[in-house]
Write a sequence for this structure.
C-alpha cells in the first residue's frame, strides 16, 4: 500500500538490502515485529516495503529526531545486530528530506 | 543491486506504484527502456528497483535540475502517459534530498 503521508517537508529513510542465503522464519517474524513497533513510535508517518532480488523499505518520519529515536530503540537495536550477524549480506540506509511529492490515482 | 552513490548531499526520487491487473509485456519492455535511458542522462547516479504487491523504484540524481530534465524527457513523457492510461492504478512520487547515508557489507 502506498503510504498516506502529509504535505512535505517530512523525512524518508530508504533502507536497501541484500539478504544472505540463510532463509529462516525468524527474519519474517522480526520484520513484522519491527514494522508494528515502528508504527507506535512518535513521528512515524508510514512505510512502504517491496522485495525481490533487492529489498527496499522506505519509512517516513516527521523529523530527524524521531528517526534517531527509532534507530536507538532497544528492540530495534537487537534487530539491527541480528541483521548484521545473520540476515543481510549488505545494506545501505539513506536519510532524506522529502521536499515535494505528487500522486496519481485512477 | 544496491546503488553506489557518492557522498551526500544528492537527490532521491522515490516512485511507489500499484499496477493495474492488465498484464502485458509492454510494461516490462518500457520499464527496461526507461532505466537504460535514465542511465544516460546528465546527473543520474544510480537506481534500485523492487516489486511485489507494491513497486518501489528509487533513482538517485545529482540535483533538482537533472530530475526535472529527466521528468520532461520526451520518451519518458510518453512512458508517463502510458503509465497513467494503462499500467498504474495509483502511484506517488517523492523528491527528497539525501542528507546522510551509511552502509554495511559482510
Amino acid at each position: 500500500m502506498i503510504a498516506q503521508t502529509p504535505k512535505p517537508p517530512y523525512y524518508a529513510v530508504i533502507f536497501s538490502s541484500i539478504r544472505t542465503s540463510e532463509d529462516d522464519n525468524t527474519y519474517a517474524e522480526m520484520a513484522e515485529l519491527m514494522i508494528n513497533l515502528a508504527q507506535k513510535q512518535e513521528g512515524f508517518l508510514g512505510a512502504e516495503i517491496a522485495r525481490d532480488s533487492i529489498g527496499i523499505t522506505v519509512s517516513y518520519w516527521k523529523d530527524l529526531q524521531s528517526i534517531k529515536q527509532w534507530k536507538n530503540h532497544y528492540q530495534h537495536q537487537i534487530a539491527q545486530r541480528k541483521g548484521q550477524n545473520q540476515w543481510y549480506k549488505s545494506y545501505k540506509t539513506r536519510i532524506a528530506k522529502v521536499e515535494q511529492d505528487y500522486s496519481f490515482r485512477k
